[in-house]
């Protein structure tokens, strides 16, 4: 079982338009932290909003496609090819999949995307 760590959201609005960055320091969000994450998210975000999702794992192109399908299945919309970027690193061992600029309507929908993405055993981290 992968390490179970909590995700946090941080936002700094002073001097610029506020943007939220979701951070996970390895592992996956545990079920115990879901309510805590939603409460924090509701303090710093308003919906609907446009945001991105990033997943890091093994599996190359297969992982890229799986993460796109995961996001599309929750949001019920097609993700245009230009909004998906990936980068292979650590000598080809890992791939980072970045799905940019998708509209979400609630913190529960964001959590549903993360829950769907983490069902894949190849995924090691998400941001």
Concise synopsis of the structure shown:
The protein is of the alpha+beta class and 127 residues long. The protein contains three helices and six strands. Pfam families: DUF493 (PF04359).
Describe the structure.
With 127 residues, the protein is α+β, with helices and mostly antiparallel strands. The protein has a single domain, classed as 2-Layer Sandwich (Alpha-Beta Plaits). It contains three helices and six strands. A four-stranded antiparallel β-sheet has the order 4-5-3-6. The chain has a two-stranded antiparallel sheet with strand order 1-2. Helix 2 packs antiparallel against helix 3. The radius of gyration is 14 Å and the shape is globular.
